[in-house]
Amino acid sequence: MAGMTIKDIAKKCHVGVSTVSRAMNNHPDINPETKEKILKAIEEANYVPNNSARNLKRNDAKAIAVLVKGIGNTFFSELVGILERECEKKGYSCILQYVDEQEDEWDVAIRVGKEKRLRGLVFLGGSFSQSQEKISQMEIPCVLSTICTVGMPGASLASVSVDDFKESYKMTEYLIGLGHKKIAFITAPKNDVSIGKLRLMGYRTALEQYQIPYREELVCYMDEKRDTYSYQSGYRLMQELLKRETFTAVYATADTLAIGACRALKEAGISVPEECSVAGFDGMDAGRFYIPSLTTIRQPVEEIGKATAGLLFDLIKGKEKPRQLIYEGELIQRESTARCKQ
């Protein structure tokens, strides 16, 4: 059983990677029976973090942490697996730390970095809006993964991502090309100044360039206190949109939100894509198998994961200065979108 990864533990217990992490971090949002089953499996497998905890008492510990904000976003599960695999190749332990929506990920990072004597740290998800003063408090190398910092707060930090503005523009332009003019938009909380802001800008710019008026009533923002990038939030936000206005297409900035939205449309008696096209963002496997299969922007997860790890290890060795790596997304046309009939 030696050498098991967090994905192996998840598979053995028939749960997601995020559920295993919640059990390990004593997170309140987990069924007690599920938690007990996971902890028992970890103990039986002598899972690596148990060894890591002992090793971290030594000054020469080789460990990095991955901070994940957005427990409901299953897109991160694959990225975590890639990062863990790349760490193992380098002889590093990989510690997974989930950050609550109400927590400031940077405060958590500074605390965890000091407590566990980390060599480096990766941020996954979240709204990155840190002051330079706070950034300067981080004493170890870090990389923002899936978070574009070009021209945004934290631009001095290393990052690996797609161009969120460009890819969001691309999806909106695709829907306009199908004849849609009333395109609803489900996105991050209104105060998001990184990914959410960039994708909103891409959507808005595409509308304006095709002489389609931007309408705030067609934009539905996540509630930062109650929503995550989850199926449930997509379902709830679509129900809210349906009370406001009519539209012929919906673009959600995460596949999980888009799939939840599809369910709400079905329950409202609106067929996808005949009466309403739905598009997402990420390229999750779940989108391929959902009925109808989901049109989306696929993020190159393997490339992003490997580049994130490679950049972090180069920073740790002092070989690299912080830089921003931008990858091209791919628009994948599937069954959930069709030409507008109205």
SSE diagram, text form:
Blueprint: H1 6-13, H2 17-24, H3 32-45, H4 48-55, E1 63-69, H5 75-90, E2 93-99, H6 105-115, E3 120-124, H7 132-135, E4 142-145, E5 158-162, H8 164-177, E6 183-187, H9 195-209, E7 219-221, H10 231-244, E8 249-252, H11 255-267, E9 277-279, H12 285-289, E10 296-298, H13 301-316, E11 324-327, E12 330-332
Parallel strand pairs: 1-2, 1-3, 3-4, 4-5, 5-11, 6-7, 6-8, 8-9
Antiparallel strand pairs: 10-12
Helix pairs in contact: 1-2, 1-3, 2-3, 5-13, 8-9, 10-11
GO molecular function: DNA-binding transcription factor activity; transcription cis-regulatory region binding
Protein name: LacI family transcriptional regulator
Keywords: DNA-binding, Transcription, Transcription regulation
Can you describe this structure?
With 342 residues, this protein is an alpha/beta fold. It folds into two domains: 6-162 and 300-328, Rossmann fold; 164-298, Response regulator (Rossmann fold, 3-Layer(aba) Sandwich). It is built from 13 helices and twelve strands. The strands form three sheets. Strands 2-1-3-4-5-11 form a six-stranded parallel beta sheet, sandwiched between helices. A four-stranded parallel beta sheet has the order 7-6-8-9, sandwiched between helices. Strands 10-12 form a two-stranded antiparallel ribbon. β1, α5 and β2 form a beta-alpha-beta unit. α5 (75-90) packs across α13. It is globular and about 60 Å long. The termini are far apart. The model is unreliable at 50-59 (pLDDT under 50).
